[in-house]
Amino acid sequence: MSVATQEALKAFYLVTLTLSAFACISLLLSPRGERRIKVALLLLCLVISLLPFNAYLMLAFKQSSSLLIYISATITWLYGPIVYFALREISLRPLSYKQLALHLVPFVAVIAVQIFMLPEHNIYKPRALGLDFYHYLFIQVFAYLGLCLYWLYNNASIATRAIKHYKNSTFYWFAYLVIFLSGLMLYDLLLINQLRAGASFDTALITTISSVMCIFVCSISLFALYQPAIFDYLSTANNEDDVTSEAGDFNQHTQPIELRKVELRQVELSTEASAELQNRLAELVTQHQLHLDPDLSMRKLSALLGITTHQLSELLNVHMETSFYEYFNLLRHEAAKTLITKHQSLSINDIAYQSGFNNRNSFYKVFKEHTGMTPANYRKTQLAK
To answer: Which terminus of the chain, N or C, has fewer Cβ atoms within 10 Å?
Structure first.
């Protein structure tokens, strides 16, 4: 390798490490964002930057750290848990710290084996310690990839909502992280398999690719944290469709109460039955957070309550003097107010998503109808108290 190439690589690694350091410091010190998410992204950024850091040490000082090499060799074990963590965040069913720690056990265990039991050997050497760690890694990678596909199959509408209607939110950037890490797991498996078979690779090429990966992950982490306004233009293409769709829903469900009463064929529910159903509905909302379900419909809700859609319409329109749309958007509005008040670190985009609104236009419309001000102005009034 020529001196000019070495100097160019050193400069590139330094740029990579500078971005990584900025991302880690931002995730550690910035008041923005949820702590749970920042901890997971910080761990990912730290670990994925170890390979370019070790490569820089080799070029600049002609020495490397065994510990860095060991951790870098086991990083693939980390991708699956982070992918699952991100999917749970997108579906608004986040992992607790304890649950995340349990998913990280294989990653930590493999590092411990490499450091304390195989310090001078490649952990992926066939039958190391009588075990084939590559096969275990293969099983783990495809288990998480299968889990990812299963989640997408069952939560397609949630993924669509995050990508299409909440561009530049934390959950939008998480979707890109999931796609990237899923591909990276397959890339690492292929690379490790080739190394096991005795293939040789250009070390500089591998570390350069790893640096590009590090830059991507750190950039996504920063975008998820700061949500730069420059990316907000991405959502403008959908604004007109969202408004049209929202207007249609609004007209359908917000007719005057008297008119909706007339349209009912007949009153089927007694006062006692209505009171019992209202209690059951409140319990369902509390237990299952129905307002967060983007697929919730009259048919689905009536099935959960064990009544017909006509009876559900009567319950909402006549006995509760509201509509399906009004009832659940009020719940979402109250959830948004709570998030704004208790979580000053969350962006308005993230609050709208976590409150269950299908798009930001719906969120702004409903919020202003009920409070008479925008979410940002409401936050300012709460801060001023």
So the answer is: C
